[in-house]
Amino acid sequence: MKTIPCIMWCLAGLASPVWSQQPAQMRDAATHDQLAQTYRQFAQQNPMRNMKPAEGVDPSTVNRPKDIISESDIICFNGLATLVPKRAILTLPASMKDRLEFKPGSRLVGWLDFYSANNGWITTVEVSRVQAEGNEAFDEQLSERIGKSRNLVVATHLGGPIGVLPLKVTEESETAAPETETAQAR
């Protein structure tokens, strides 16, 4: 019985020097006058005063986007609907064409909510930005998987749907084809 209080006193004696050795860190707080003076100095150095107004047409008025509905495809099923960018749907089975129409009474939700409720019939394919811009082709395995899929296949980038532009044909590949044909003819 006496050993427990003795151990407690020993632990308390060992712990007190540890806590007392930590130095207290104190800093002087800035006064109102110091803050006001610093503010005045930065206000005098305002870089926006030296900036010249932009010349030409206001870029925010050129190429304004149309309405969001005309720029998107609608996917609707089981009382929920979502919008995805045009060209984000890579494969649409014939049996699911009716799911691309908005049904009256459906609730419009974000992509993640819609996908989590319908991931049984939707497959996503993560694409890079370069692939979405049409500058790089998909891998052959991925292209085959997309073609054979019985699900609705949606292209995503960082988890969100993204439109995929058609693959751009460069001039080098067009000029390379005739050269190989002439080499074969010799």
What's the SSE blueprint?
Elements: H1 3-20, H2 32-44, E1 72-77, E2 80-85, E3 89-91, E4 107-108, H3 111-117, E5 122-126, H4 129-132, H5 140-148, E6 152-157, E7 160-161, H6 171-185
Parallel strand pairs: 2-4, 5-6
Antiparallel strand pairs: 1-2, 3-6, 6-7
Can you characterise this structure?
It is built from six helices and seven strands. The protein is α/β, with parallel strands linked by helices and 186 residues long. A hairpin with a 2-residue loop joins strand 6 and strand 7. It is extended.
Structural class by sheet pairing and helices: alpha/beta
Can you give the mean pLDDT?
82
Helical stretch count?
6
Oligomerization category of the chains in this entry: single chain
The largest sheet is: 4 strands, mixed
Helix percentage: 25-40%
The number of E-state strands comes to 7
Distance, first to last CA: 106 Å
Shape: extended
Element pattern in H and E: HHEEEEHEHHEEH
Flag low-confidence runs.
Answer: 179-186
Rg from Cα: 33 Å
Q: Beta fraction of the residues?
A: 15-25%
